[in-house]
Structures are given as structure tokens and as C-alpha cells.
Specification:
alpha/beta; seven-stranded parallel sheet; 13 strands
């Protein structure tokens, strides 16, 4: 095949891709939505005031703290949080999340309603009274909120989104869902993420603003409190977080079954190092339900395992917010996606549990690969014990310089150096309020 023929084939494919993208955008009502957004912005600009709703579905996924506070402190904004745990959660998990989030927002003095307690239309009634101009979403997945809160039902508002997780891969699922293309603004953590969206999204990332990741603001700020429990003997120990992902089966989308291999070992380490280490078990919120349905685990074994992490004198369970937990820790052992980048914001040692690192990294983009390179990779008992003995306890940390490089070049937000401020500035500039 000649170079000219190859060039023609590539050119034809690009042309076909452009046609398909335009057809998809038309089907989504993309062009009409842009006109709607312009009308909303004009209305807000003239009125000099905006009503803003933040959806909160899980405290551990809440990303709008800084932005919410800035808007509440500015008389040009009226703010409400709508608490609505994901529909995929069990009834008990929903109740637990509502309790945690209500307590949290009460402590901050943030106004909120709980949607769904009195039926699906509770938000619909609230919307008719509050008349929001802008809604910030937590996730882009279809069907996680219920009809009245879904983005498709709220296209009369400016739809905005800060990803709840730091996306690591080239993935249509993470950059090219219907919601991604119709949003007024998608605030992404880095220029790498914008370039991925330009490549994958039907709208070529035209609604993206690079702002940084909101967890950077929290993880580099002064901690509010120390959530690690006091040890009975009064002696300080190094503090290690064990944070497994929820995908524990083989041959699934994420293919992260490592927890099954290291679960008992991690408990044994907690016993073996009880005089030198404290451990915090920070599982993904969905891990318990996945283990309940796992053929080798089930309800009884899972509940016993979780209970052991609560009962061991040098251990604790952590199922809520994790910012202060991270700040006051000394290291992490995990196989979670976004923690791969988030924990590096503390500049502390991190070990990623992977039986097949090449499989984990095969579809990662530049940002994610840089963060993975700053990790130690462990899987076997000798590898995990080596990380604990040499890196955590002895302080022999050859990847420290790599972590500092990643912190400066990838993790630090652009412009103001503060993600919430970058988002806030973009919004007021868009309204012509600057």
C-alpha cells in the first residue's frame, strides 16, 4: 500500500468520523442546547444573580466544597445542595449516605434538601420554587438519579460537571457519553484530559475548561482534624491506608481482583506490625456489596472481615470523607483508580497492588502513566513487606523525586493554583461579572 493510498484512507475515516459526530450532536439537540445556554447566560448577566444547585450523592464523592463556599460568600449567588444517594445503592446504604451528608452540610451551614424521601417528585417541587439557573452534577452515568434529577430533564439550566474521579484512561465511557457532549461546562483536571476529550468526544471537547482537580485544594490545605484514633499506649506509629477498589472479579471492566489475593495478608500485616504501624481500611463504597455476592466471600465472611478492621487495636474502618485521613497518613497501599493521582497530592509514598501492571496501564493516558510511575508496584507478600519495612518504616524512598515532579507538572492546577477559584473565575467571567 502506497503512502498516498494510506493517506486517502485515513482522510476518509476522519471525514466519516466528523459526519457521524455531527449527526450524533444533532440527535442530542446539541445545537439547540447551545442557544438555550446563551439565553440563560444573558438572563443571568442582566439579572446580576444566579441560583445554583449542587447534587450530592455520596460524601466521599463530594467535590464542590470550595466552590460552594465561594458562591455562598458572594451575594450574586443563591446556593442549595440536593442530597440524593445513587439509585444503585441499597436502601441501607442510601440511609447511611443521607445521614452522613446531612450531618456534614449541617456542620457547614450549607442549605440543603433531601430528594426522594417523600417520593421522586420532591426535587421537582423544589425546582419549581427555587428555579435554578445552574446545576452541578456528580456523575455522568445514566439512571443514577431518577427522572426529576437527570440531566435530560434539566436542560433549561446550565449543566456543569467536575468529575468525581480522576479519569486515567482513553475511554469513550469517561469522555464521550451523551451528558459529556451536552454539558455547558465540563471542568477537567489537566490539559492532558482536555486533549483526550478533543480526540474522543463528539463535540471535540468544546465545552471543556481546564481547572485542576478539587481534591488538590483540600489535600494541600491545612487539615481540619485528625481522624486517626489515639493508641491506648500513647505511642505514635506510622500510619498506612489500605484502600481496595470494588471490582474484585476477574474478567470485568476494570479487572482488579487483587483484593481477593491480599485481603488476609493485609490483616496479618496489621497484627505483625501492631507495635510500629496503624492501619486504616478505606474500601470503595461498593466493595461490601460486591463481596456479599462473591462466590468465595458472602455476607458472613465479609461482615467478619470488616469487623476485624474495626476491632484490631491499631486499626480502624473509614467509610466517609478521606481528605484528613490522607493528610495525616504516612503511606497508602491500594488499587483504586483516582487514588493513583489523588494520594500523590500529599507527596507521600504510595504502593499500587497489581498482579499484571501492563494490563492495568495498557489504556492509560500520559497523566495517569506519570502518576503510576511515581508509585511502587506490589503484589506478593515479600513485595508488600518490603514496601512497609524499607519505604514506610526506614524512609528509604527512591521514588520521592518522581512524586515531586508529578506534583509540579501534572497535579498542580493552572492559573490561580486553586481549582475552586479557577472554576469560580470561569463562571463569573462567562456571566460578564468580572
Amino acid at each position: 500500500m502506497t503512502a498516498r493510498v494510506l493517506y486517502e484512507i485515513v482522510l476518509h475515516k476522519l471525514h466519516l468520523d466528523c459526519i457521524l459526530a455531527r449527526e450524533r450532536l444533532r440527535a442530542l439537540g446539541y445545537y439547540g442546547q447551545k442557544k438555550t445556554y446563551r439565553k440563560i447566560i444573558s438572563r443571568i448577566s442582566e439579572r446580576g444573580h444566579a441560583n445554583v444547585v449542587f447534587i450530592a450523592s455520596s460524601l466521599s464523592m463530594w467535590r464542590y466544597d470550595g466552590l460552594c463556599r465561594m458562591m455562598m460568600a458572594d451575594s450574586r449567588f443563591s446556593v442549595y445542595v440536593v442530597i440524593h444517594p445513587f439509585n444503585t445503592y441499597s436502601i441501607e446504604a442510601r440511609k447511611d449516605e443521607i445521614r452522613r451528608m446531612a450531618s456534614y452540610f449541617d456542620s457547614l451551614g450549607v442549605p440543603y434538601i433531601v430528594s426522594g424521601e417523600d417520593g421522586e417528585d420532591s426535587y421537582k417541587d423544589f425546582k419549581a420554587k427555587f428555579r435554578p439557573d445552574m446545576i452541578f452534577y456528580v456523575q455522568h452515568y445514566e439512571g443514577v438519579y431518577g427522572d426529576s434529577l437527570e440531566w435530560r430533564t434539566n436542560r433549561d439550566c446550565l449543566l456543569a460537571y467536575i468529575p468525581y474521579t480522576l479519569t486515567l484512561a482513553y475511554s469513550q465511557w469517561s469522555f464521550n457519553q451523551d451528558m459529556h457532549n451536552v454539558l455547558w461546562r465540563s471542568y477537567q483536571p489537566s490539559e492532558v484530559h482536555r486533549r483526550v476529550a478533543v480526540k474522543l468526544a463528539s463535540n471535540r471537547g468544546r465545552n471543556i475548561s481546564v481547572a485542576g482537580d478539587p481534591r488538590f485544594d483540600s489535600l494541600t490545605a491545612a487539615p481540619l482534624s485528625d481522624p486517626w484514633k489515639a493508641m491506648p499506649d500513647g505511642r505514635h506509629r506510622k500510619r498506612v491506608i489500605f484502600a481496595p477498589h470494588f471490582q474484585v472479579r476477574t474478567n470485568n471492566l476494570f479487572n482488579r481482583p487483587e483484593f481477593i489475593q491480599v485481603a488476609e495478608l493485609m490483616l496479618q500485616l496489621a497484627v505483625d506490625y501492631s507495635d510500629r504501624l496503624q492501619f486504616a481500611f478505606k474500601p470503595h463504597p461498593r466493595l461490601k456489596s460486591e463481596l456479599y455476592n462473591h462466590p468465595e466471600w458472602g455476607v458472613e465472611k465479609t461482615d467478619r472481615y470488616y469487623r476485624q478492621w474495626s476491632e484490631l487495636p491499631n486499626c480502624q474502618m473509614e467509610e466517609g470523607d478521606y481528605i484528613d485521613l490522607f493528610i495525616h497518613s504516612d503511606a497508602i497501599i491500594h488499587n483504586c483508580g483516582s487514588f493513583t493521582c489523588e494520594y500523590l497530592m500529599t507527596r507521600k509514598p504510595a504502593a499500587f497492588v497489581a498482579g499484571n501492571l501492563a494490563e492495568v496501564e495498557k489504556n492509560m493516558h500520559e497523566y495517569a502513566l506519570a502518576c503510576m510511575d511515581a508509585h511502587y508496584t506490589v503484589y506478593t507478600e515479600p513485595e508488600i513487606r518490603d514496601f512497609v519495612d524499607n519505604v514506610v518504616l526506614a524512609g528509604v524512598d527512591p521514588r520521592k523525586k518522581m512524586r515531586e515532579k508529578v506534583f509540579a507538572e501534572y497535579l498542580t492546577p493552572p492559573d490561580t493554583g486553586n481549582t475552586a477559584m479557577n472554576v469560580f473565575n470561569d463562571i463569573i467571567n462567562s456571566f460578564g461579572w468580572n
